[in-house]
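Standup notes
- DV: blocked on the single-chain target, sequence here:
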Amino acid sequence: MNWFKNLNLPNKLTVIRVFAIPIFLIFLYISKGIFRFMPLLIFAGAAVTDAIDGHIARRDNLITDFGKFMDPLADKLLTTSAFIAFVEIGYLASWVVVLIISREFLVSGFRTLAASKGVTIAANAWGKIKTVFQMVLIITILINYTGYFGFTNLLITPLIAITVLLTVTSGAVYIYENIGVIKN
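- DV (later): unblocked, structure below
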């Protein structure tokens, strides 16, 4: 654990987010009664650390190569873990999750190729909006999963449709805007 002590605060928050994933999944699968709020609380807490670590890193000039690599990876691990688990517990169709994960692999591949050519590709507005809707979808499903807020059932299908649309759109825009990376 000595390596953890040597990390700056934003990077510690990123690592904590990764360690929260198995805890989130355990509570998602075994929680009963009032404890069905635990996956929601864990996921929401992990999602909040994403906003906090980025803010602190920029504010205090604590941006590191580790953070540049691990922060987006931690986000993808957290969201894809939730989406895959939602297939297993019956909230999402597998094709939705395959589409979401495929888009993430495609964009990551583009970024890796660009980086190999010395080009940095920043996230665009479409990708950020897509991420917000993914988080809203996950949190809505987790609220519904508690069993105490049945009205959220009406929100899930429209949120899935919007998330799928934004996933496809953001992926297409990303490819279109950065197609020169492949051509060169």
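- Follow-up: The mean pLDDT is 91.
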